[in-house]
Design a protein that fits this description.
By secondary structure, the chain is of the alpha+beta class. It is about 35% helix and about 20% strand. Strands 11, 12, 13, 14, 15, 16, 18, 19 and 20 form a nine-stranded mixed sheet that branches. The chain starts with 7 loop residues before the first strand and ends with a helix.
Length: about 550
């Protein structure tokens, strides 16, 4: 920013073009632009001096410099109200000073973002889907890789706000947040801002074993059981819907090019950042809500299915921050607003790399195993709602006519079905196989992606073990079915509130076996604390609180 602050334009009538425009951006960049402007001034002065009858340069301005006059022979010329053209000696001296300043500024920026002076954030996703962290100097990271950093276990009982639920741990129990090197993301894309450097952690005990209440551990155990029982690898990709807000962001038409281009700096930087982080972005697009966007990435296998979801969400938030915006992933920004989902697309990879969820001769092209898996997911969806849609505001989103599902139902390409098959549009057999996947539409970002992946796997495994038949696909909004049709098709409503969802969770003998009693009781305690905190508040107040928290 030029002295005096604020946007500044340097004009000259010598060539009729602006020599410099500074919109208040980074200081280092502005210094370089000023250097170029000084060079242009030198050329302008040379042309003026060589002229037999020099013209007054009366419309040259540089904000914050005082009015000056210069003399050509006996002629005194005013040069605008804020600047003057200086002598070659003055210009040379200033260019030298500015050159040194630019070098010093660049040196500071380089020091700020060098690996040795980074803060590396050891991160984990807790019961409420918030990414918590502790920071260490990056130079100290190697000695933190084995045991990580201590963390009070009681903090697992935090709500998304500044409240903590009753829990069994008290002040003594501690876990070690232990970074996992394969999750490292380091982005050094913003001059003058320290690098964005994060790693996801396992929550371990002092002996190195995984803590029973670690959400990433919950997912990892489910992945191991699925692979052991099927010989397949689970692969998944989340769709991240979010609301972008900021003082300079105009309201735009949904699903429009305008929505993308008014935030082109953000969306372009986001594509760059996601690619640089190795998160393989596939789409960055406007969504149905005003200032709502969606990002999807390529599917990832194993633990990276959950890791990539957390990392993608945090990179989106970081890029928004760097552009003066906020990205909120809340399920419902306002009672009547379009909701934000975190739909999960998934399939299974065989040892030969083929898509084991696909069978061209199967019903809806789903393999027998995929049919059983889908049936288990539909059967247990009411019981796992509290794990995949984990907040009071989640149930403002779930419901008919929202394309977010209000019923445990199954369909092919039906966006009102809770579980659907997404067939590939490609006629080529190989590409049709690789593009085939299934989708669960109920989850949102108030649930930890680790718990979402773990719950999907556990419900699907129940269907595989019981060899449940694939439900009959429905081709309409389930709310349009008669009660008799719903009964015949096995379509049941999802819980209408978090309290109902928790009751289903606690009553399910199958779900209780997926986690330790401590995990279940402490998770339910946190969720009931959230419910209690919302008592007496209007839907508008509740939506606003979660919009700010997520």
């Amino acid at each position: 920013m030029l002295p005096g602050g604020g946007p500044t334009t340097l004009h000259s009538k010598i060539n009729g073009e602006p020599l410099l425009h500074d919109d208040g951006g980074s200081y280092g960049q502005c210094q370089i632009l000023r250097f170029r402007a000084l060079a242009a001034f030198t050329q302008a002065q040379a042309r003026a001096i060589s002229s037999a009858t020099p013209e007054p340069v009366s419309d040259c301005s540089l904000t914050s410099l005082k009015p000056k006059q210069i003399k050509f022979g006996e002629k005194v010329i005013n040069h605008g109200h804020d600047c003057r053209i200086r002598t070659t000696g003055e210009m040379t001296a200033e260019i030298e000073v500015r050159s040194q300043s630019v070098a010093a500024s660049a040196s500071v920026e380089n020091r700020m973002s060098s690996p040795s002076t980074d803060v590396a954030y050891l991160c984990w996703s807790d019961y409420v889907g918030i990414t918590r962290c502790r920071g260490v100097p990056a130079a100290d990271l190697p000695k933190r890789m084995d045991k990580g950093l201590g963390w009070a276990a009681a903090a697992q009982a935090l709500t998304p706000f500044d409240n903590i639920a009753d829990n069994p741990w008290g002040p003594m129990t501690e876990v070690r947040q232990t970074p996992q090197p394969e999750t490292k993301v380091r982005l050094d894309l913003w001059p003058g801002t320290p690098a964005f450097h994060i790693l996801m952690c396992d929550s371990n005990l002092n002996d190195g074993t995984n803590w029973e209440c670690c959400t990433r551990g919950f997912m990892k155990k489910a992945l191991r059981d699925f692979e052991a029982e099927t010989g397949l690898r689970f692969t998944a990709a989340f769709e991240h819907e979010f609301l972008l807000s900021g003082p300079d962001l105009p309201l735009t038409t949904p699903l429009s090019l305008e929505a993308m281009r008014v935030a082109a700096g953000f969306t372009g930087a986001l594509a760059e950042a996601l690619a640089a982080a190795g998160l393989e972005p596939e789409t960055i697009e406007p969504e149905y809500g005003i200032n709502q966007y969606e990002v999807s990435s390529a599917p990832a296998a194993g633990t990276m299915a959950g890791d990539r979801a957390v990392l993608t969400r945090e990179v989106i938030r970081e890029v928004a921050r760097r552009h003066g915006y906020r990205a909120s992933f809340t399920p419902k920004p306002a009672p009547n607003a379009v909701g934000n989902g975190a739909h999960v697309h998934f399939s299974f990879i065989a040892q030969d790399g083929s898509n084991a969820a696909f069978d061209p001769s199967g019903t809806a092209e789903a393999s027998q195993l995929a049919q059983h898996f889908a049936a288990g997911l539909v059967r247990f969806l009411p019981d796992i709602c509290a794990l995949v849609a984990g907040s009071p505001v989640s149930y403002y989103r779930l419901g008919p006519h929202h394309w977010s599902c209000g019923y445990a139902s199954f369909g092919v390409q039906n966006r009102e079905a809770a579980v659907r098959i997404c067939p590939s549009p490609d006629a080529d057999p190989a590409r049709r196989q690789s593009g085939f996947n299934m989708e669960l539409r109920a989850p949102d970002a108030t649930a930890s992606p680790y718990m979402v992946v773990g719950a999907i796997l556990r419900a699907g495994l129940e269907g595989i073990r019981a060899k449940l038949p694939m439900p009959t696909p429905i081709d309409r909004d389930p709310s349009e079915l008669t009660p008799e049709q719903m009964k015949a098709l096995g379509v049941v409503p999802l819980p209408a509130s978090l309290e109902e969802a928790l009751a289903r969770l606690e009553a399910s003998a199958a779900v209780r076996q997926w986690m330790s009693p401590t995990f279940l009781s402490s998770y339910v305690s946190v969720k009931r604390k959230e419910i209690a905190m919302m008592e007496g508040k209007s839907p508008e107040e509740i939506c606003a609180m979660y919009r700010d928290a997520y």
